[in-house]
Design a protein that fits this description.
Length: 143
């Protein structure tokens, strides 16, 4: 059980430090093309490997360019983590694109679109469209 907490703590520390590096440390212009944020960090049980999931706001081209910049900055990030966290062994970094926020945003867009379509289909109160009569109890705005 202590091993699991240690891995979780390490993942949390790495996430915090990489987030800080994204703001102040990584000078690669490719990374600054899109808004990059760390969404999740998974550290292997032996603390030798680490997957860093990032969300990158921008076009597909900006995402790929920023991800390439992150991958090339991995040795710098590893060195900074080693120095900042005072680690004897720092895990190898692997940066991966997290599409969860993108998918969530897409789902929200679809839900909003469906809601608008539903509102457009509902007759207005007092509307004389066929099939609805004023006062027939079909007006959903009354309690």
């Amino acid at each position: 059980m202590a091993q699991g907490r240690r891995v979780e703590r390490m993942a949390s520390l790495i996430r915090r430090e990489i987030s800080e590096l994204l703001v102040n440390g990584i000078k690669d212009e490719r990374v600054s093309l899109g808004m990059v944020s760390v969404t999740q960090v998974e550290v292997a049980g032996d603390l030798q490997h680490c997957k860093v999931f990032v969300s990158i706001f921008g076009s597909d081209e900006d995402r790929q360019t920023a991800l390439a910049g992150l991958k090339s900055a991995a040795p710098f990030v590893k060195g900074e983590l080693s120095r900042r966290l005072n680690l004897r062994r720092t895990p190898e970094m692997q940066f991966l694109l997290d599409r969860g926020l993108e998918k969530g945003s897409s789902v929200l867009g679809l839900l909003n679109q469906l809601g608008e379509e539903r509102l457009q289909r509902q007759p207005l109160a007092g509307d004389d469209t066929p099939g609805t009569e004023a006062g027939d109890g079909s007006d959903s705005s009354e309690p």
